[in-house]
Amino acid sequence: MTENNNDVILKVVNLKQHFKTGVGKYKMLNKAVDGVSFEVKRGEVFSLVGESGCGKTTTGRTIIKIYKPTDGEVYLLGKRIVAGTKGCKDEIAKLKAELPIKIKEIKLDVNLSEADKTSKIVELKAQTKSRIDELKAEIKQRNHDQNTKYRPAKEEVEAYKEAAKKRIAELKELIRKENAAFAAFKAQAFKQTDSLPANTDPDTKERIHNEELAIYREVRRKKNKAVREYQSEITTQITSPKFFNRPLLNKMQMVFQDPIDSLNPRMNVKDIIAESLYINGIKHDDIVLEKVYEVLKLVGLQPDHADHYPHEFSGGQRQRVGIARAIISEPQLIIADEPISALDVSIQAQVINLLNELRHKLGLTILFIAHDLSVVKFLSDRIAIMYLGKIVEMGSKDKVFNNPLHPYTLSLISSIPMPDPDFERARKGVIKYDPRVHDYSVDKPTLREIEPDHLIYANDKEFEEYKKKLAANK
């Protein structure tokens, strides 16, 4: 299944990520991401904004497949890379459970004749069956897509394994023959040594024995080296990038929040940055080193930093190393997960400017995850505000900041500090958000468009109120 919109580089459809917590009677379901949908267009910076715990980081990690999604779909460059089926299965179970209850309600309806009751029950069963069949077909299609993607890889792995077994059997036969030939050579050599005259100098005898042993060891060394090289070749072939769809996944990389924990302290900068190249089968040292030096310069570091270790750098420099690691595989999409939250304010500005510069220089698209709206306002083209796993408002930067509609968005914007003493003195205070202002018991909310490129999470009643407010603001 593919999408053909060439302008959209990333498409997320109804993405859900639920975690089970607790045990026994304390078992709970944490809906970290609950039905998130958005599109990221080529060349833009799309920001996910919200307080800690709203699900923005989980969304990014699920997109890049660090977490397996509960439900939903993710398309990268028009190809589906993530597809969960739990939501479909849950809906099938719900439909089956509700069917007898609805049938009973129809039978107990005194306002209907027997003929009407029979007609409604038949219609209800047909609708339920039709919907269940649709869901089963969707599950089958998603599973088929996954199997289709990995079946060629499995077949090629099996072919390599069979070739490896055959080649190893040939090597064993060759080794057996070599051992037999060398045993004959050794027996003949020692026989000649033993047949030396009795008055031969002991040192001469020992020298001859040592020469024979050296020949034996050299033959064994070359033989073992040949076997190791072949085994390494087979391993490289079996773990080749084409088996795991890496050419597509390499188009998406992630910059993590903590520049300390995200870098291996036992590896130097060269190995950290080049790891992506090694995984993708690029082994030539000159090529790897040249590429590492190139990306180090791009992120504002020097080539001689390649031999240093993470603990030798400042926080800002470590984050630059993380960015270099992300861009070395030439991705089209960068998921930046709060890349400046652990840095000083002055360093934050440098890293933001670096991301903006790389975006234009390398043609990157950035999914920027943050909770600092002042940074988001500077860097982003479009914004999605998240609260408790859902997007509550989404649109262009100007429309969200100039006409915020959702109470949670108003609360976040009101908390932005301004470098203006007069404004701060006149500020009436931060607008506090109370989720109890919403009544979703009957009228359920959805994310709907209130104006071009501006969506709001609301039910019918709230939507009409937001429309009036928007009209008044204009």
TrEMBL record:
What EC number(s) would the UniProt record show? 3.6.3.-
Q: Which PROSITE patterns match?
A: ABC_TRANSPORTER_1, ABC_TRANSPORTER_2
List residues of the ABC transporter domain.
Answer: 10-413
Biological process (GO) annotations held by this record are:
peptide transport; transmembrane transport
Ranges in coiled-coil conformation: 125-188
InterPro entries linked: AAA+_ATPase, ABC_transp_ATP-bind, ABC_transporter-like_ATP-bd, ABC_transporter-like_CS, Oligopep_ABC_C, P-loop_NTPase
Give the keywords, sorted. Answer: ATP-binding, Coiled coil, Hydrolase, Nucleotide-binding, Transport
Q: What class of enzyme is it?
A: hydrolase
Asked if the keyword Transport belongs to this entry, the reply reads: yes
GO MF terms listed in the record are: ATP binding; ATP hydrolysis activity
Sequence similarity: Belongs to the ABC transporter superfamily.
PANTHER family named among the record's database cross-references: D,D-DIPEPTIDE TRANSPORT ATP-BINDING PROTEIN DDPF-RELATED, TRANSPORT ATP-BINDING PROTEIN
Query: What is the protein's name according to its record?
Result: Phosphate ABC transporter ATP-binding protein
- Species source reads Acholeplasma hippikon
